[in-house]
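Hi team,

As requested, here is the filled-out complex form for the P-hydroxybenzoic acid run. I kept the field names the same as last time so the parser does not choke. Let me know if anything looks off before we queue the next batch.

— J.
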Amino acid sequence: MPVTDTDLFLPVRLGPYQLANRIVMAPLTRSRAGAGDVPRPMAAKYYGQRASAGLIISEATQISPQGKGYAWTPGIHSTEQVAGWKAVTAAVHAKGSRIFLQLWHVGRISHPDLQPGGALPVAPSAIRPNVEAFTETGLKPTVTPRALEVSELPGIVDDYRRACENALQAGFDGVEVHAANGYLLDQFLRDGANRRTDAYGGSVENRVRFPLEVTRAAIAVCGADRVGIRISPINSRNDLVDSNPEPVFTHLVDRLNDFGIAYIHVIEGVTGGPREVEGGFDLGKLRTRFGGLYMANNGYTLDLALAARRQNKADLIAFGKPFISNPDLVARLARNAPLSAPDPATFYGGDEHGYTDYPELETA
Ligand code: PHB
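And here is what came back:
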C-alpha cells in the first residue's frame, strides 16, 4: 500500500537545491577505499544505487592525513582522491540526486599506526579515550593523544578549507562539518575531553570557538547555504562525556543560526543506539532556535519519520543502516514494503559483497 498523506516523499528546498524528497542517506563508514585512501570505482556504483535519496551525505572523509582514524577510510586531501570522488558525484548526479561531503578529523580516535610517521594522534587535551582503534592489523587500544598547541589550530582550519575546495572540485554539492560522535570538533565541545585553559577551553564560548572557526572556513569556500553540520548532543560514543551539554549546544546552534547555514543534522540519542538517554535534554529546543533545516537521525523507521513530519519535528530524515541493505530504500518506504536487514559482518572493509550486491525490491 502506498503511503499517502505525507510530504516525506515530496520535494523540499535545501539551500540552492530542490531535493526530490525529504529522505537523506546518512554518512556511513564502509572502509573500502583503495591505496592512498582513494575511493574505488565500486564506491561510485554504491552511491549511485542509493541516489533516490533526496540527499546523500558521504561517508566521513578525512580532511588531512592527520585526520584519519580508521583503516581504509577515504580522504579529500590529494588529487587522486578528488579524482576518485568525481566518479561518485557523477554517478549520483546522473540519477538526479545531490551529495554533500562529510568533513572528518578524528582527533584522538586514532592510532599511531594510522598517523603520518607513526605520530601521536592529536586532541584538545592529552586525555586517552577508553576505546579501541580500527587499524589495518586489527583493533588496538588507543594511546594518550598529544594536546594541540594553540599555534597549530589555524593550520587545521586551513586543512578544512582545502578539503572544502577539493570537495567542490570533485563535484560535491556542499559539505557537512562532522562535529559529532566524539571526533575532533566534538572533543573541543565537551569538558570530558577539553581541559584547555586558553581561548579554546573552559567556558561554553571558548569550547565552541574551534568548531565555529572550522564552520566559518567551510562557509567561506562553499557559501553558508551549502554547509551543514552534524552534532550528537546527548551521545557518549567514543568515550566522550560532558557535564552539561545543553548550554554548549544551545550556544553552538545560536551561532550557526547567525551564520545562516543550510541545516543541522542531529543524532537523537546514542549513535546507532537508544534514542532516549538518561540525563539528556529536549533536542526539540535546538530545532526551534534554528532557522535552517533540521535533519533528524538515529533509529528512524517509516512510522517515526511520518510522525516527525506530521508533528513538524524535523524537515529531513536521515536513514543509515537501512540504506546499507536497501539501495531502493525510498521506494520501499513509499510503498511501506518490507526492508531487508544489513549484515554487520560486511559493514567495514572488504569488497563489493555487502556493499553493492544488496538487491532492489523488484529483484529481491
Ligand atoms: C564508525 O566507523 O562506526 C563511525 C564513523 C564515524 C561516525 C560514526 C561511526 O561518525
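Two things worth flagging: DSSP finds ten helices and 14 strands in the chain. The pocket of P-hydroxybenzoic acid is lined by residues 29, 60, 70, 180-181, 271 (CB under 6 Å).

Thanks,
J.
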